[in-house]
Amino acid sequence: MTSTARPAGGGGPVDPQAHGAFDAHRPPSAELLADCVHCGFCLPSCPTYVLWGEEMDSPRGRIHLMSQVREGEPLTQEVAGHFDACLGCMGCVTACPSGVQYDELITATRAQVERNTSRPPAQRLLRSAIFAFFPYPRRLRALRGPLRLHQRSGLSRLLRKSGVLQRISPHLAAMESLAPPLGAAEPVPEVTRAAGPRRGTVGLLLGCVQREFFPGVNAATARVLAAEGFDVLAPASQGCCGALSAHNGREPEAARFARRLIDTFESAGVEHVVVNSAGCGSSMKEYAALLADDPAYAARAEAFEEKVRDVSEFLAEVEPVATRHPLEVSVAYHDACHLGHAQGIRSQPRQLLGAIPGLEVREVPDGSLCCGSAGIYNLLNPGTARELGDLKAANVQRTGAQLLVTANPGCLMQIHSSLERAGTPMPLAHTIEVLDASLRGRQPSDLGVPGATRSTGGSPTP
């Protein structure tokens, strides 16, 4: 799809001191804005442009709006709406031949929007409710009981089938449909000792949604790291990493969470901090920028950032010592945007999965396009997220795989919901759960795959 409009700018002189309608605290950089030459390579990678074909809802269109606001145009609700519509998937960063740092630009702009615009009351209420619960594991834990009861009662299936909740409130319907089936809690011990000779000590981020809604992922991560010879420290006192706050312009809140997490893992004395949630890892690798103006934490944030590793990244860096047992299953691997685009981690998960005997990795068509989760985007913009989720579900089904594998809780919830809605449910697992099953000699049925055997002939449906 091509655009009929081309924003002006990008080639003239820029005054880096001028910030127009943006306030003086970290406005989007004039130099970075000028890097965009409006070539259009970003357009096919942008989910909102793919859906709507609107120039101002493309990366280069949003950059044009940022430049206009820097030059004095007002930061209106309409302009802010184009920034809010961005999923922050960073697909454009991967696609850009000029190396435009759109990630830094949209992060700075969202903080400006959060400080300098006033959203409609319903939007403010929704955002307040989300941020009153999601970054707080204890509050999420309090929801587990009522949510499990709701799911077991059959009311969940009835609501989804009838569409009543969708008619009453699309936002509430999105929250209800995205909730994964909850099983028993699997708390991770504060200390998990290495199996066999000890090779080092790592910290494990437990997260918020991951900890309470996908506890099996954390348990599997601790087991795999221990099996590979590492002591695993998972401090019970750790809180939110601040990713949701940082990605939604809530800079002071994100900074508070970051400081506390740095304090926690500094006290633990670990060599690396291992993360199994793509969005969290992406944010934690940006702590140095987040806390650059804090004299007490700037240097500490840089040192902490150097220790952060996604679990697949970490395991790809060390020589494997644990035995991989066969898993006869075909898997469709979905690149979480904040793992593939934001962190550049693509080969490592495939390397881990490909080393499992009997396992076949299949690529998802148009795999680089966001599934629509994008942190809390699917709660704030359920219609757009639903369209993207439906596209992703259809492409996953085209692989003909028996199991979908990815590395982010939001993606797991989003794609699970989309597949259910399409009437084509399929088991899903985190990358580390698949590796854990192999190390423990489990069967594909333990990952929810009934009667799985690896396909030996033909190729995935194109």
UniProtKB/TrEMBL annotation:
4Fe-4S ferredoxin-type domain boundaries: 26-56, 77-105
Cofactor-binding details, from the entry: Binds 2 [4Fe-4S] clusters.
Compositionally biased region (Polar residues): 453-462
Short name of any one Pfam family annotated for the protein: CCG
Catalytic activity annotation: (R)-lactate + A = pyruvate + AH2; glycolate + A = glyoxylate + AH2
Cofactor: [4Fe-4S] cluster
Disordered: region residues: 1-23, 439-462
Keywords: 4Fe-4S, Electron transport, Iron, Iron-sulfur, Metal-binding, Repeat, Transport
The protein's Enzyme Commission number: 1.1.99.14
Coiled-coil segments: none
Enzyme's top EC category: oxidoreductase
Role of this protein: Component of a complex that catalyzes the oxidation of glycolate to glyoxylate.
Name of the protein: Glycolate oxidase iron-sulfur subunit
Organism annotation: Pedococcus aerophilus
